[in-house]
Amino acid sequence: MSADYRLIDIKLDERTILWRNADIEQERRVAIFDLLEGNEFKPIAAADAGQHGPYKLLLGVEDGRLDVTVSDTEDRQVDAFQVALSPFRRTIREYFAICDSYFQAIRNASPGQIETIDMARRGIHNDAAELLKERLEPRAIVDFDTARRLFTLICVLHIKGH
Fold first, then answer.
1. 3-state SS, residue 24
2. Domain count for the chain
3. Which of 30, 35, 78, 127 lies 20 to 30 angstroms, CA to CA, from 144?
């Protein structure tokens, strides 16, 4: 059997989404679409047990932890684990703040100001992706782009209404 360490389906636990609007839904759709277009995802326990993918993923947040449920193509659970989100709290706050600044800048800032804010936004996102790769590593191996898009989905799960 050849290994196919990738995701073919991603869902967010609807019970844990705190708030949504059209912009949030668009972010979710884009992140999932991009993830499914190309990703590397190898859940260690499932792979060690002979489950070589592809996989389906369910993400949720409960008690300050990211709940990750991995299933095979027949919807049989092959792995489940949690990742503490406390190391991400500050980064998520910073990311939301810079995104707010970016969306405000689009309306009335110069192209140079917008680019500066966007570079800062991307930097925070990239740092978060590296941290997520590290935090996942004992349970799953992911590439940088997969970690980056998973961080976007973690943010979607954390957005609160105003």
1. helix
2. 1
3. 78
